[in-house]
Design brief:
Elements (H helix, E strand, L loop, with lengths): L1 H17 L4 H8 L10 H17 L1 E4 L7 H15 L19 E5 L3 E2 L5 E2 L5 E3 L3 E2 L1 E3 L5 E4 H4 L11 H11 L17 H20 L14 H14 L1 H7 L1 H11 L3 H4 L1
Parallel strand pairs: 1-2, 2-8
Antiparallel strand pairs: 3-6, 4-5, 7-8
Helix pairs in contact: 1-3, 2-4, 3-4, 4-6, 6-8, 8-9, 9-10
Bound molecules: zinc ion (ZN).
């Protein structure tokens, strides 16, 4: 089994070399991406190879007059690669396996109307809402993002990285449910994950009920799936804040994404 995995890994490495993003353009683009600055040169090389492979196997589609330049395509693929490159190793599933439930990213130039209706689940969570959005993910189908919201930007008080958010939803959906629980790695503990997220989700909802100012975006309190997606944004964009407010959630996400952005900041 190990031999098969090693062979798969070597084959992937070979494929990746064929779809490399040209070094000059890569440097120009990643110099503008704050999230990239925390990675070592060998990690950046892995991210570059993976981003090239994402560009080869996934489609990035413009909508509503959006003009997609090479720079935008590479930026999007790089953000996607940042999220999942930690999954890649000889012992584990390849990173691209984690992206198997979507094929395209549709990019709008600005926030868009989702064309849906408000819908509550039987247990009272808002699961669908009508309105203008910056991103959307459906169980079947691709990822939709609004480029205005997706530009790499300096860390803000409230993390907001719509592509990371929507991709987190797709990871969550890999086990067949959209419930804030993606398939966990073998070395992770289901109960520890559940406890960390349940406790934080309840705490956030309590803060809102009391009318307090929340330290992470209150949208996370919508339902457990949104909590996971929003906390993923914070994990990558403002790890200090997430670790300060919900350290157990930070620890679980570090185990899940196999990255420790706090340590690197
Ligand atoms: Zn969401």
């Amino acid at each position: 089994m190990q031999l098969v995995k090693t062979a798969r890994h070597l084959i992937l490495r070979h494929c990746l070399k064929q779809s490399k993003i040209p070094l000059k353009i890569w440097h120009q683009i990643t110099a503008k991406m704050p999230l990239m600055q925390r990675y070592t040169s060998s990690e950046r090389m892995r991210i570059r190879l993976l981003a090239g492979e994402i560009l080869r196997v996934k489609t990035i589609v413009p909508a509503k007059g959006m003009i997609l330049t090479d720079e935008i395509r590479i930026t999007i693929a790089t953000q996607a690669a940042i999220l999942v490159f930690g999954f890649e190793s000889v012992e584990n599933d390849l990173s691209l396996d984690w992206l198997r439930n979507w094929n395209q990213i549709i990019v709008y130039p600005a926030p868009f109307h989702n064309g849906r209706e408000n819908l509550l689940s039987t247990d009272g969570f808002l699961v669908s809402w009508a309105g203008v959005e910056s991103g959307e993910t459906q169980y079947q189908g691709g990822i939709i993002v609004d480029w205005q919201d997706d530009q790499p930007h300096p860390l803000r008080v409230h993390a907001n990285q719509v592509l990371l958010h929507e991709m987190a939803h797709k990871l969550d959906m890999l086990d067949g449910y959209t419930n804030g629980h993606p398939p966990l790695h073998k070395n992770m503990n289901e109960q520890a994950w559940f406890n960390a997220f349940e406790e934080a989700f309840k705490h956030l909802n309590k803060q809102i009920d009391k009318g307090r100012v929340t330290l992470i975006n209150s949208y996370a309190a919508t339902n457990p799936a949104e909590f996971f997606a929003v906390s993923t944004e914070y994990f990558f964009e403002t790890p200090q804040r997430l670790n300060r407010v919900y350290p157990k959630v930070y620890q679980q996400l570090a185990l899940f994404y196999k990255q420790d952005p706090l340590f690197k900041n």
